[in-house]
Write a structure and sequence with these properties.
Two copies of one chain form a homodimer.
Chain A: E1 2-5, H1 11-23, E2 28-32, H2 39-48, E3 55-59, H3 62-71, E4 75-85, H4 90-94, E5 100-104, H5 111-116, E6 119-122, H6 130-142, E7 156-158, E8 167-169
Helix pairs in contact in A: 1-6
Chain lengths: 170, 170
């Protein structure tokens, strides 16, 4: 599963989208925009792992990406609050057995994506956040298993604890 | 359930936290910081509803808020990647029958919160996003029911659809 995303002015929300993609089990992240945006993600991969499991790439034409993804047999899910509520599509989406590209817009998304995605999915039909929407979609697809993710190349790992901070350094 | 949050430099992530709180069923949002940060949320409440169901407030001393919340019989959940994985606490949290205050930090959070929360909960022990963490916690507590939320005073409602955008205006 991969994520396509275009940043608006703000790199922080884009960073959150990419970190959720990594932490919740995606295998890569396509960014429409400048490669420099990816530097903070690269820093996370070096420290917390995932350089081998999570590929970062910039794309100049996200429409070409969507077209070629579908031509190659993949499925495109566009997250939008105008789409069909995930409540009504959860099992259909979980049964997809082809590579999934999730398109996460920032700000207004062109009508083209609505027309060319296989699914337009809403995580509820209220305005909230592309970061939250992506997290919920991935949680529904992986049914919570993603929350136990571990990266073989991590230099630092957290040992979850009731109080304070415990970390393991490799 | 209410949310306490302190913004860092960036108002956009704070806005996302507040919008997730509203869309996922919380009854209010306490912000450590300037009231002006809340203006974009007020705009959302006027248009999409929730002015009666979702209270906005700024607080000068979030520690006093935590103390008084607990003194009044409420439970405080602090979201942190260093906490106990939600996987292991989901049913305990769902069984809480007292008012819940969820503390969502931005950046480094003082040790005080780790020591004074009833629960330090991690949505997975990887770095990702306070927006995603809040969404997943609320989704686990409400078991997906929050995704059908509707606000009586909404001026505009989305009718989720397979393609395009359909809205109802009151």
């Amino acid at each position: 599963m991969r994520i396509g995303h275009r940043p608006k002015r703000d790199v922080r929300v884009t960073t959150h989208v990419a970190l959720v993609a990594r932490a919740f089990g995606c295998s890569g992240f396509f960014l429409e925009g400048d490669d420099g945006y990816l530097n903070s993600i690269r820093g996370i991969l070096r420290k917390w792992g995932g350089a081998e499991d999570f590929e970062l790439e910039t794309v100049k034409s996200p429409r070409s990406l969507v077209k070629s993804w579908r031509r190659d047999g993949g499925v495109v899910i566009h997250l939008t609050m105008y789409g069909v509520n995930i409540i009504d599509k959860e099992s259909a989406i979980r049964e997809i057995d082809r590579p999934i590209l999730i398109v996460v817009g920032a700000g207004k998304v062109s009508r083209w994506y609505y027309e060319n995605a296989d699914y337009n999915i809403a995580i509820g039909n209220q305005p909230h956040s592309e970061v939250a929407a992506l997290a919920i979609l991935l949680d529904r697809i992986y049914m919570g298993r993603e929350l136990g993710i571990d990266f073989g190349d991590a230099r630092i790992r957290i040992l979850g604890t009731e109080r304070g901070k415990r970390v393991l350094r490799a």
